[in-house]
Write a structure and sequence with these properties.
The structure holds three protein chains of three kinds.
Chain A (H helix, E strand, L loop, with lengths): L4 E4 L8 E7 L2 E7 L12 H4 L15 E4 L2 E4 L2 H19 L4 E5 L5 H14 L5 E3 L4
Chain B lengths: L1 E4 L3 H9 L3 E7 L5 E5 L24 E8 L2 E4 L6 E6 L1 H13 L8 H8 L1 E6 L27 E5 L3 E6 L2 H7 L5 E2 L2 H13 L7 H12 L5 H8 L7 H5 L6 E8 L2 E8 L5 H4 L11 H20 L9 H5 L6 H10 L2
Parallel strand pairs in B: 2-6, 6-7, 7-8
Antiparallel strand pairs in B: 1-9, 1-10, 2-3, 4-5, 4-12, 8-9, 11-12
Helix pairs in contact in B: 6-12, 7-10
Chain C lengths: L1 H7 L16 E5 L3 H4 L1 H14 L2 E5 L5 H5 L2 E3 L6 H15 L4 H7 E2 L1 H8 L4 H8 L3 H13 L3 E5 L1 H4 L4 H15 L9 E3 L6 H6 L6 E2 L3 E2 L3 H11 L12 H10 L4 E5 L3 H4 L3 H10 L2 E6 L11 E4 L8 E4 L4 E5 L12 H11 L9 H11 L8 H4 L5 E2 L23 E2 L18 E6 L15 H6 L5 E3 L1 H7 L6 E5 L4 E8 L7 E5 L27 E7 L1
The chains are: A alpha+beta, B alpha+beta, C alpha/beta.
The complex binds iron/sulfur cluster (3 copies).
One iron/sulfur cluster (SF4) binds next to α11 of chain B.
Chain lengths: 134, 336, 540
């Protein structure tokens, strides 16, 4: 893939789009876009610095499982199996109403839609909400 | 002196990119002009002013400067051969300005100069100013270079460029197979282009007047405080400016140690001058805005005998609330 | 949101940001716009500079925009309804209302007149602290400017009276006819980059995507058919705060949290921690080890915005495409792939190839998004919903010619005091908010050193007057205590804060203001009252 692209700012609801530059697999810079109707070639302090947390060393890089108080790395297969199994067990035993799902105001529409579809269709729960009520 | 047919430009840059990293203004899918490594956009209509100046090739938004791993400390410099096409004359003047700043008091900034020495600047003179906010003419300069700070300078002669080398590096570039020998008439053409070009996004009188008022300390704190109420503290004016050099040093831990980076900063941020004691010598936004313009239009003039603004107009382009050089100078000029 | 939907039939921002260039006046209430929505603030500032637009700001603090405003209404925290009813009183008394608009496009006007009558300027002044003259000037500016845009944010919604506040704003706009036209409207500014989209996509307990109600049989049948399942629940589910509460009492046994950090963002942070600990099985999907993830049984590493492709819907309902700029970091997986993996393993197959395919399904099942296709988004700067078909240009402003619900509904509200008011034991009013350089719980922004520097740590902002009374100076440590918890933190003297009020932010987990705030919920919208609670401040 060609590195760099036009991306939507991950912070506030203004919805600025900027160009994110990538070199050697690292996000290295932001350029505002003149033709964008909200941004019009400007950004705020957060938008200008949005590249700086992407490659942060504290990013989670492996699924983690906690057992008996100890956290260990796990493969994706193991982690996803465990999630599905445990959620299904709870659903079997107590019904979908014993499950809760917090979706996110930071992820895409597609991801929000799929998450709510999963909660409702796969786990029979309407206990789905996101944390940013306004 | 050589000529280059415009349709040959892409081929020329491709040739160069075999040996060097090539930056060139390019259009993205929405038609915005951005300064990008060759191939990340299209080169159709690639002559123009990009939102960020060519300084980004020498002084990136974020760069590693030191690695601390185990007990070892290593300085990080990037000496990759880099060729930048489409540098504007104002950008080139900005680079010359940065050269001086980055080696002031005989302290040479190794990160900057590693890049600088490996960089070739292909300047394109402006027959027509690329935007309404260009005002290099008001700073007493013209939209082309006379001193040979450039490696190559291109003049736009309609369907082809006329290219002049300004250095050995430039001469080598002109040896590329895509160039042709220039004709007698081309000398005449360059002369005419020079005579007719100007970029007057600001009246020269306004700038002179503002510089004078600043020199005589006639612009008071209240004036700045009132203007600064508008500032949303985005930092954009410093980021896009070809002569701004502020950076912030920050450490990131990684598995084996930590990485020290520097990233763009701005004198308009309150944390920029705040000392560890909590005391801030530039306590108000007005004082910070004043600092920015006094620095460029007063102190640089005293120190270097030229102002620290090359008239590119980018701060006026990027500021969302009309606090760029053009607007500020106009406000000062309007003062009694 | 619930308030706006009841009045107009739609809960989103009614107008778009570019329309701001042509507005004659702005009324900003409960929004520190410069800090939270900088480029909307910049738009207001530019309209004032270039087009001489006027600005009224209503805020208990002298916020950035207030210093530029033509009129600043410095009303007491939590008295918004009284303030707005007072403005409407003036408007009706002076005959500045838009009679034609009221007659043709609204209903229930008489009951508004009745309620508003009870808010003469003197009484309003007694409640809000805003003098009658200033109130009248603000009412005149709002009512008599040809095109006025109203903006609000969390300062309006984060009260027990949040829904009342919003309905009262809607009343004001309908009374003056500043709605349903370009450069007018009632505009809630959304805090995070995809709050609007999360709501639109049905990440809510009572609706599917496009606000199609789960209690509606036709809707249920439609989704059962589209998704190939039977027995979808018709019972609205629980909200975030209710889910957390149920988790604490054992009703919720499994919790799956994607990209949120309730351990910092929710009121009564300690209670939240207790609830999270009690959950039998907690899954957290995020890009960093958040305070919430520390309680999880399984943590799934997702990708950042830069590594994915998809659409986001900004505060003005503009659906935009965001492109992938780099490959996912090694070990991380796209959220949509994780969800497909879990659902499929749970026995419900999800076999999507790309976000594009998911959007296609959204187009099919969501009438307001039907025309917002991937292909179109590749060439335009977003499309505002509703967009019923592929030839439709989108709808930058809502309620043109008729309200979504038909007639605009006046629902007058009476002023009610905040749930908890200062008393002898807790004499100060604590209000919380954001600062410009940080974002929400700081999961992302606190990883950016420059932003961390610009908002260095949690401080308690107090007025210089109170500082004198408390005998504290800039940087002095104080003990801050509410009925729910306490904190120690340094003070910052801020002359822009009224006496008796203190202000803190919630970006900092180690000094979490939400340890003190109150979980009194607005009964309709169920938004916690972050904006006010009673505290005591003690010199240490
Ligand atoms: S750049 Fe700033 S104003 Fe624009 S969307 Fe991002 S956070 Fe909001
Ligand atoms: S101050 Fe503004 S106009 Fe002058 S060089 Fe810097 S960005 Fe360009
Ligand atoms: S670009 Fe404008 S708003 Fe941004 S920091 Fe500079 S003066 Fe302030």
């Amino acid at each position: 893939m060609i590195p760099g692209a036009l991306v939507v700012c991950p912070f506030c609801g203004c919805g600025c789009v900027f160009h994110l530059a990538v070199r050697d697999g690292r996000a290295v810079g932001i350029t505002p876009i003149n033709s964008h109707p909200v941004s019009r070639g400007s950004l705020c302090i957060k938008g200008w610095k949005a590249h700086e947390f992407i490659n942060h060393p504290a990013r989670l890089r492996s699924p983690l499982i906690r057992e008996h108080g100890i956290v260990r790395e796990a493969s994706w297969d193991e982690a996803l199996d465990l999630v599905a199994k445990r959620l299904c067990e709870i659903k079997e035993k107590h019904g979908g109403n014993a499950l809760g799902f917090f979706s996110s105001a930071k992820v895409t529409n597609e991801e929000n839609y799929l998450f709510m579809k999963m909660a409702r269709a796969a786990f029979g729960s309407n206990n789905i909400d996101h944390c940013a009520r306004l | 002196m050589k000529t280059l047919a415009k349709e040959m430009l892409e081929g020329l840059l491709r040739d160069i990119s075999r040996k060097a990293l090539v930056y060139c203004p390019q259009r993205n899918e929405r038609g915005d002009l951005l300064l990008l490594p060759l191939g990340e956009g299209t080169t159709d209509g690639c002559i123009g002013k990009t939102p960020i100046s060519a300084k980004i090739c020498l002084f990136p938004q974020i760069e590693d400067v030191v690695m601390f791993a185990g007990d070892g400390i290593s300085k990080v410099t990037d000496g990759r051969e880099t060729v930048v096409f489409g540098v504007r004359p104002c950008d080139m003047r900005g680079i010359v300005f940065m050269d001086r700043f980055m080696s002031r008091d005989n302290l040479v900034d190794p990160h900057y100069f590693a890049r600088r020495e490996a960089m070739t600047c292909m300047v394109v003179a402006c027959n027509e100013p690329p935007s309404e906010t260009c005002f290099c003419t008001a700073t007493g300069k013209r939209p082309f270079l006379t001193a040979t700070h450039y490696d190559v300078q291109f003049f736009d002669a309609g369907d082809y460029f006329i290219a002049l080398a300004g250095s050995k590096k430039g001469n080598r570039i002109l040896e590329d197979r895509h160039f042709k020998a220039a004709a007698e008439k081309d000398i005449e053409k360059v002369k005419r282009i020079k005579e007719n070009s100007s970029a007057a996004g600001m009246a020269a009188g306004e700038l002179e007047d503002a510089i004078k008022k600043l020199a005589e300390d006639r612009v008071d704190g209240l004036f700045w405080e009132k203007l600064a109420l508008r500032c949303i503290k985005c930092g954009g004016c410093a980021y896009v400016c070809p002569t701004c050099t502020c950076y912030n040093v920050q450490d990131y831990p990684f598995e084996f140690g930590y990485r020290r980076c520097r990233s763009w900063d701005s004198c308009l941020f309150s944390g920029f001058t705040r000392e560890t004691s909590g005391h801030n010598p530039r306590a108000t936004q007005g004082a910070r805005l004043a600092r920015r313009y006094e620095h460029k239009l007063k102190y640089d003039l005293m120190k270097y005998h030229e102002i620290g603004c090359v008239g590119c107009g980018r701060c006026s382009d990027v500021c969302p609330v009309g606090l760029g050089a053009i607007e500020i100078v106009r406000e000062i000029a309007l003062m009694p | 949101m619930a308030g706006l939907a009841a009045s107009f039939g739609s809960g989103a921002m009614t107008n778009s940001i570019p329309e701001m260039d042509d507005a004659d006046a702005f009324f900003v209430i409960g929004s520190n716009t410069t800090e939270q929505h900088p480029l909307v603030a910049a738009r207001i500032i530019e309209a004032m500079r270039l087009k001489n637009a006027k600005l009224v700001v209503a805020d208990p603090r002298r916020i950035g925009l207030a210093k530029l405003a033509d009129i600043h209404l410095m009303h007491r925290v939590g008295t918004d309804v009284a303030l707005l009813n007072g403005m409407m009183h003036v408007i009706l008394e002076k005959g500045w209302e838009n009679k034609a608009f009221i007659a043709e496009r609204t209903e229930n006007f008489d009951s508004l007149r009745e309620v508003v009558k009870r808010y003469p300027p003197e009484k309003t002044a007694a409640i809000t602290g805003v003098d009658p003259g200033t109130l009248s000037e603000a009412a005149e500016l709002y009512a008599k400017s040809a095109k006025t845009m109203l903006f609000y944010a969390m300062g309006i919604t984060q009260h027990t009276t949040g829904t009342d506040n919003v309905k009262t704003l809607a009343n004001l706009a309908m009374l003056t006819g500043h709605i349903g036209f370009p450069s007018t409207g009632v505009n809630p500014l959304r805090g995070q980059n995809n709050v609007q989209g999360a709501c639109d996509m049905g990440a809510l307990p009572d609706v599917f995507s496009g606000y199609q109600r789960v209690s509606d049989d036709d809707v249920i049948r439609k989704f059962e058919r589209a998704w190939g399942v039977g027995g979808l629940s018709r019972e609205p589910g629980l909200t975030v705060t209710e889910i957390l509460h149920e988790a604490g009492t054992g009703g919720i046994k499994g919790l799956y949290i994607m990209g949120e950090n309730p351990a910092v963002s929710d009121p009564e942070a300690r209670a939240v921690e207790r609830c999270l600990r009690k959950v039998e099985f907690l899954v957290v999907q995020d890009i960093f080890m958040t305070e919430t993830a520390k309680f999880a049984h399984v943590i799934l590493p997702a990708v950042s915005f830069a590594e994915k492709t998809g659409t986001f819907t900004n505060t003005e309902r503009r659906v935009q495409l965001s492109r992938q700029a780099m490959k996912p970091l090694k070990g991380c997986l796209d959220e949509w792939k994780i969800i497909c993996g879990v659902a499929t393993r749970a026995g419900y197959r999800m076999g999507y190839d790309s976000p594009e395919e998911i959007l296609r399904e959204i187009n099919e099942v969501t009438p307001s998004y039907r025309g917002i296709t991937w292909k179109r988004l590749e060439t335009v700067w977003g499309i505002a919903w509703p967009c019923p078909n592929e030839d439709h240009p989108g709808t930058p402003f809502l309620h043109k010619e008729r309200f979504v619900r038909g007639l605009g509904h006046f629902d007058p509200r009476e002023y009610m005091a905040a749930f908890e008011v200062p008393d002898e034991q807790y004499p100060f009013l604590l209000t919380t908010g954001r600062v410009g350089a940080q974002y929400h719980t700081g999961t992302m922004t606190r990883k950016i050193p420059l932003l961390e520097r610009e908002a260095p740590g949690a401080v308690l902002e107090i007025s210089p007057e109170d500082a004198v009374a408390l005998r504290v100076r800039e940087g002095s440590m104080v003990g801050l205590e509410s009925r729910r918890g306490e904190l120690r933190l340094p003070v910052h003297l801020n002359p822009d804060i009224p006496k008796g009020t203190v202000f803190g932010t919630f970006h900092f987990s180690e000094k979490n203001m939400n340890a003190l705030t109150i979980c009194a919920l607005d009964p309709v919208a169920k938004i916690p009252e972050y904006k006010s609670c009673a505290v005591s401040v003690r010199r240490l």
